[in-house]
Structure formats: structure tokens, C-alpha cells
Fold each of these.
Amino acid sequence: MQCPRCNAKTQVRDTQSHATVTERTRQCVQCRHRFSTIESTEERAKLHRLITATERLQQVIMSAHLVISDAEEAIKYLKT
Ligand SMILES: [Zn+2]
């Protein structure tokens, strides 16, 4: 794994295994930047992508509702 700041090599400092994910604390050998990574199985990753897609879809639906209510307001205004 490369450092997100300088792209140098990193070393694992700590590993914590949970039921479905493994969390690792890594440190860059060059700039000493510390960050953590999460490993999960493909099934878990798929589930995460599905949840993200659903949340985005909900945002799109919310935006569409706002556009529709704006249009309804405009129609009401035009009719008066
Ligand atoms: Zn670095």
C-alpha cells in the first residue's frame, strides 16, 4: 500500500480484526503520515456499494420532488 500523501511505501503498525472487516493502521516510511485502511470481503463491498447507490438514488428522488413542487408553484402562479 502506498502513502496517499507522497506515494512512498507504508508499514502496517496495527491490525484489528472485527467480524466482517479488518482495520489496519499504516505509517509511511518517508513522511511518517499515519492512516488506516479497512479490508472486507467482496460480499461486504458489494453491500456497501448497494447502500451507497441507494442513498444517491434517494437524493435524486428528493431533488426531483423539489423540482416538481417548484413547477407546481409556477403553474399555480401562472393560473392566477
Ligand atoms: Zn508519505
Note: The longest helix spans residues 42-79.
Amino acid sequence: MATPLSPASPAPAPAAPAPLLDVRDLHVEFRTRDGVARAVNGVDYSVAAGETLAVLGESGSGKSVTAQAIMGILEAPPGRVTRGEILFQGRDLLKLTEEERRKVRGAGLAMIFQDALSALNPVLSVGDQLGEMFVVHRGMSRKDARARAVELMDRVRIPAARERAGQYPHQFSGGMRQRIMIAMAMALEPALIIADEPTTALDVTVQAQVMDLLAELKGELDMGLILITHDLGVVADVADTIAVMYAGRIVEKAPVHELYRAPAHPYTRGLLASIPRLDHKGRDLYAIKGLPPSLLRVPPGCAFHPRCPMARDVCRTEVPPLARVTYEGFAGERRSACHFWKECLRG
Ligand SMILES: Nc1ncnc2c1ncn2[C@@H]1O[C@H](COP(=O)(O)OP(=O)(O)O)[C@@H](O)[C@H]1O
Ligand code: SF4
Ligand SMILES: [Mg+2]
């Protein structure tokens, strides 16, 4: 007797490309005289080539410490990674030697800091600083390196690049200096750039220009970009995904449009409500009450409970897991660490 054909098994889904960067269950603490600051408490995030992940949160939430751990520039001691993995192009950076990490920093990973003036060398002309990258990492002659430096300055749209290459960092405006930082970070065409509050020190118009430039270059080079900011208003147009951090944890992670449309965490809701909007001119801005906790004394249960307008008893004792958020019409990856994300989502 012929056996009935079993229904065709579905073709295996093509394996998703391995992310460029995959941070898993990262924990970082600082042992200080006042006690142990748990700055990062189990952060998971990943970034693919061509993707922009914005990491958002008030000051002191562990955004920069996470970035420093990825770059291998954590101040240690007092800082220490106590748990987790940082997979970059499939290799766990935490298992590499200092020498190997330096190589990764040269060509694979680069960082842009908030304060260009202190990140750049004050006694070297910007042309020499940019050129140095090509001399050291690419073995170019000084003359060729200088030509490449001028090209890069052009590319980040510094007017009269050839003439200005001989000038020193303090002779540039804040916005132009930040462009030089971007040029430095891009020089070796890294696979991933981490920009830590790259526009915080700039005025609003210049902020937008620098952000546009970053987005444009990222697109051209198909890099991954992690954009750290405390300002949700800045990232709306450039981010693909947003991870919101609070007290060393990710409390919400979502595609940018979904997050704006309907936040699934009361903290995100508060951050969104405090963005100045042109159409709300004259109205008082909402501010989340209170301050973020000291990471020396994170509240029990949900760390946000002392400030949360939706908090209930369970919030004071049970840590909410970073649960999968699903709803009709959305099949992507989205998460919230709130016991009541469904209610929050409904608004
Ligand atoms: N060098 C350090 N020494 C001691 N504690 C630190 C140090 N750097 C960071 N921390 C701790 O980590 C917390 C998070 O810092 P950070 O990641 O810089 O916050 P942000 O989200 O503003 O970037 C700080 O509030 C502090 O408790
Ligand atoms: S778990 Fe409770 S306290 Fe925390 S965000 Fe949700 S409702 Fe607020
Ligand atoms: Mg910071």
C-alpha cells in the first residue's frame, strides 16, 4: 500500500546573516570606595551591516560604559566586565589579547566621541592627525597620507580642505571639529562605528547637519552604526532600531517607527512626551518625575518603579524580563521589560 505522501516540509528559512556585532548578557561593574556600581546589568543588542542602532537613555544609564566595553577602552580598574560576550564578526572580543584588540580597533571598530577637542591631539595639525592613520595602519608615505587626509576632509565637507589641513583642532568650529572626528573614525573604513553623543555639544542646526553626514557616510560604506544619545529627537530620522536603556539594562527595543507610534514601556513613553515639538509650541513640556537611580543603589524589582506612573505592587519586587512584544500587524522583533507592556502599548 502506498504510504500517503507527507506534506512537503517547508523549505528551511535562509539563515539570517550573522550580525556584525552581537553583545550578549553583558555585565560591567565598577568597584569604587562607595561600593559596587553595577553600570551594565545584562545588556543584549546586535547590529547588522548597514544598520543604525540608537541607544537611548538619560545620563548615567550605562550607555557609554557599554560602548567602552565593546571598544576595549573601559577604565579598568575600577571597571570590569564580569559576565557576557561581545561577538564582533563572530569573534568574542573579550577573549582577545590587548594586541589583538588594538588591531580590531584600528580597522574593524571605530568610535566618535562627544568632545572632539579633547579627543583630538591639540599640537598636531588635523591633516597630520588624519594622515597618521594611513601611515601607521596602511604603511603609506607621508605625502600620500596627506593627500588621503585632504580627500577625507573633503568627503566630510570641510570647505577649503587643502588649506585647512595645516590648521590645528582649536582653529575649527565645534561642528567642523566633529566632522574631523568623523573623518578620523572613517579613515580605515571600519565595519562598525560607535558614535557616543556625537552632536550633544553642538547647536541644533549643526546637530542636524552632522547627523545627516553620518547617516550618508554610513549608507555609502554599508557600515553598522551605534548612535548613543540622550535625545530621542535627534535619532528619529537616522535610526533603524532603538534600544532604550535604564539603570544599566535595556528596557525597550523596537524598530524606530513602531517605538514612536506606540511605546511599550512607560519610560519610553515619558521620553517621547518630553521631546519638544513644533506643533506643541507654547505648551509645557512633560518631564519624567524624579531622577535616574545611582547605579550603586538600583531599586529592587523594576528599577523604574519609583518614577513610573503605572507602577503597582508587583513592580516593587519582581524584575520584569525583557519580554517579546507581539501584536496584530507586527511580526518583527520587539521587546519590553515592563510587566504591563500590553497596557502601555494600548496607551
Ligand atoms: N570611571 C568610572 N568609575 C566609576 N564608576 C563609573 C565610571 N564610569 C562609569 N561609572 C558608573 O557607570 C554609570 C553609567 O555611566 P555611563 O555609561 O557613562 O552613563 P551614560 O548612560 O550617561 O553614558 C555611572 O553613573 C557610574 O555609576
Ligand atoms: S514594570 Fe511596573 S514600574 Fe516598571 S515600567 Fe512597567 S509598570 Fe512601570
Ligand atoms: Mg555617556
Note: The first strand starts at residue 21 and ends at 32.
